[in-house]
Design brief:
single chain; 49% strand
Length: 172
Amino acid sequence: MKMKTLKNLFLVLFVSLIAVSCSSDESGGGGGTAAAGTITAKIDGSTFTSNSQFTMATKTNTGASTTVTLQGSDNSGEALVIIMNAFTGVGTYNIGGGANLSVTASYILPNVSNPTASQSFMAPFDDTVAGEIEITEVSDTNVKGTFYFMAKNSQDGSTKEFTNGSFNIDFN
């Protein structure tokens, strides 16, 4: 009787895994919740969503190396920029980690009345891994994925935490 119960348990687990896998594929491969043409994230708990008119992705090939740049601004001028050097496609990319500076992220908080008081936050900011970017889908025309990271203000040393980040951007 135990063997039959064990087989039934494995069958239920197997069917559950298939159902979860299929539902993930149908919703865009788990690429996050960003609407087409946008970058979204929680920044210290507040929602940031780029305006699709101010959002773009570029892919540049230099010899055997590919660089992908994602950038998006909202209507107030707040901007997120992610640069991935040595881009190879779908996969996970660490932001920082020792001498690894092939992936960086920055956030700009503009001050239009006093541009010299604008703030910028950068990742990585030391030898540790500041976060990661996961590319879940990439084609010749579009890139989708998720990200999280911690960035540090270059002027006053304060930090901002970026969570639940996602993007769905066409290449220019």
